[in-house]
Structure formats: C-alpha cells, structure tokens
C-alpha cells in the first residue's frame, strides 16, 4: 500500500509512515536524493511541537448511530485529553478502526466542545464534507486529523476570527464521510480559505477530483433536518439548569 504524503507549510510532500508507534524517534532520511526543503509530516510537526504540547487540547469521541438525540446513550468519550502528538499516536495506533460499525462516527474535537450541532461553539457553523472511498479513508482521516491538531487549518482562519473545531469520520456503505467543522458557517472567506488549505495540504493521491455531492461539499449545520429542534431543546435544558 502506498504510504501517505502530506503538504505541510507549503512544502513538497514526502512519504511518511502512518503506523509509527514511537513518535519520539527521529524519522530516518530517505536514501533517495531530495530537495532540502522537503520534509515528512512527522519531521515538520515534531520539529514545531517538541517538547511543547498542541496549542489546543483535543478529545476523541465515539458516536453510535441512532435516530435519537439522547446523546447520553449514543455519544461517549474515548480519550478525554489529547495534549500532544505522542498521546495522539498512542490513541490512534491502538484503536480498532476496522471495527467501527456502519454509520457510527469517530470525532476529534477541541476539548470542551461536544461534536453536536447544538453545542454553543457549533450552532452557527458548518462542515466541509468529503466522500472518501474506503480504500483511502483511513489515510485521509489520519492526514486531516494531524493537520487539524497541528493548527495548519486554524492558521489560515485567524484573520477571519473563525475556528476549526474538529474533524469526524463516519462509516458509510462504500465510503467514509469525513468532515472538517468550523465555527462560522456564514463567513464565505473563511470557508473558501479552509477548502483551499485542505486541498493544498492533502497528499495528491488523496485529493478529491471534483466538487459536488459525489466528491465534497460544504453544509451549514442549520441546513440539516432536526437542527432547529436540537438547538431549542439545548436552550431549554440550559435554562432549566440556570
């Protein structure tokens, strides 16, 4: 299987091993001659982050598919505090991804933000959604998650006062639906900037070849069926607690 390549900080891609078990070991340089500006994903990210933690802490969630909005029974935490790249790989490399069931979802979200539309941070936001073939889905999600947690996406949204809040992968019959969530669903500039950055940073073989429902699209949370009811219920629950 071809190893994933990732564009980070506008550098050209180089292969990296997504199954790295010890992220604290320096990456071995390729025996093939390469341009001095080319770095692997791990070399670049580790160089920026070691020994510092991620700028934001992250929580890994599991969302069991159900038509119910009772999140206490369908949404639970897999790992509460992913603070650095080593912790991420301890979680990622030991998770049985092949056992995620049809229509179930794994989310990686900023700590303190629940991966639901009605969370206060999400209510005015939306998602870039990518339909990814099963053969490429795990590599795609791995790259998206690393780029998200390393602030590669957030950096391009700072001037728009927007935020990338998390990423999700949901198992479908022939594909995975992989989403990148942002806070401001009505900010066209930040939405387009996020799209450009995702496509630029992804490995060339993982990039979607077109737009539309068969490739990728942006959808505001408020456009989803059930959004209004979910938000109203959340507001009522919050009022009862006050």
Automatic annotation (TrEMBL):
Q: Which GO terms describe its biological process?
A: regulation of translation
Q: Which UniProt keywords apply?
A: Initiation factor, Protein biosynthesis, RNA-binding, Translation regulation
Top-rank taxon: Eukaryota
Q: Where does the signal sequence lie?
A: none
Span list, region Disordered = 1-30
UniProt-listed Pfam families: IF4E (PF01652)
Q: Which is an annotated GO molecular function term of this record?
A: RNA 7-methylguanosine cap binding
* InterPro entries membership: TIF_eIF4e-like, TIF_eIF_4E
Q: What Gene Ontology cellular-component terms does the record carry?
A: eukaryotic translation initiation factor 4F complex
- Please verify whether the record's keywords include Protein biosynthesis: yes
From the record, give the transmembrane residue ranges: none
Q: Which family does it belong to?
A: Belongs to the eukaryotic initiation factor 4E family.
Q: Record's PANTHER family?
A: EUKARYOTIC TRANSLATION INITIATION FACTOR 4E RELATED, EUKARYOTIC TRANSLATION INITIATION FACTOR 4E TYPE 3
Protein name, per record: Translation initiation factor eIF 4e-like domain-containing protein
Biological source species: Aspergillus leporis
Lineage, broadest ranks: Eukaryota, Fungi, Dikarya, Ascomycota, Pezizomycotina
């Amino acid at each position: 299987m071809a190893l994933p390549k990732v564009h980070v900080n506008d550098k050209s891609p180089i292969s990296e091993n997504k199954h790295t078990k010890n992220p604290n070991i320096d990456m071995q340089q390729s025996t093939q001659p390469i341009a001095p500006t080319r770095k692997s994903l791990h070399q670049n990210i580790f160089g920026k982050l070691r020994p510092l933690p991620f700028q934001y802490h992250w929580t890994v969630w599991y969302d069991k598919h159900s038509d119910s909005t009772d999140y206490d029974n369908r949404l639970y935490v897999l790992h509460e505090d992913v603070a650095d790249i080593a912790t991420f790989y301890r979680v990622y490399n030991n998770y049985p991804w092949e056992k995620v069931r049809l229509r179930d979802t794994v989310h990686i979200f900023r700590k303190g933000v629940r991966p639901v539309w009605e969370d206060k941070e999400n209510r005015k936001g939306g998602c870039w959604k990518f339909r990814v073939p099963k053969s490429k889905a795990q590599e795609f999600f791995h790259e998206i998650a690393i780029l998200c947690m390393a602030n590669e996406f957030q950096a391009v949204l700072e001037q728009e006062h927007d935020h990338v809040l998390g990423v999700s992968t949901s198992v479908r019959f022939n594909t995975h639906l992989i989403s990148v969530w942002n806070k401001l669903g009505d900010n066209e500039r930040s939405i387009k900037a996020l799209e450009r950055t995702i496509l630029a940073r992804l490995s060339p073989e993982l990039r979607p070849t077109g737009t539309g429902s068969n490739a990728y699209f942006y959808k505001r949370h408020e456009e989803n069926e059930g959004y209004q009811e979910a938000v109203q219920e959340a507001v009522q629950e919050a009022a009862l607690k006050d």
